[in-house]
Amino acid sequence: MDQEPTGFEEKRTSLRVDMEAExxxxxxxxxxxESHDDSAVCIxxxxxGVLFDYCKAFDVGELVAMTFNEGxxxxxxxxxxxxxxxxSNDQSYHIALQLL
Length: 100
Description:
Blueprint: E1 16-29, E2 35-46, E3 49-54, E4 63-68, E5 76-87, E6 93-99
C-alpha cells in the first residue's frame, strides 16, 4: 500500500506532468536591468505552475519566461513568478514558478 510520507500533504489539485528532465530556455531581467538567457531542466509542469532545476538561485518574486522546444515548430513560452527556491544539492536549485 502506497502512503504519503509522514507530515506531507499534497496540496495540488491539478494533474502534474513529469517532464523527464526536459531542457528549456529561460529568460529574465535582473534587478540591475540586465537581460539574461540560459538553459535549465524542467522537472514537472502543472496547470498553475512549473518546477525546474537551475545552477543559481532566484529570488522569490522574480519574473521568468520559460521556452519549451526552442527553435522548433512546437516552440511555446510560458511566464511565471518565482514562488519558491530551494537548494537541491551542491550544484543546483529547485525553483518553483507560479504561472501568470
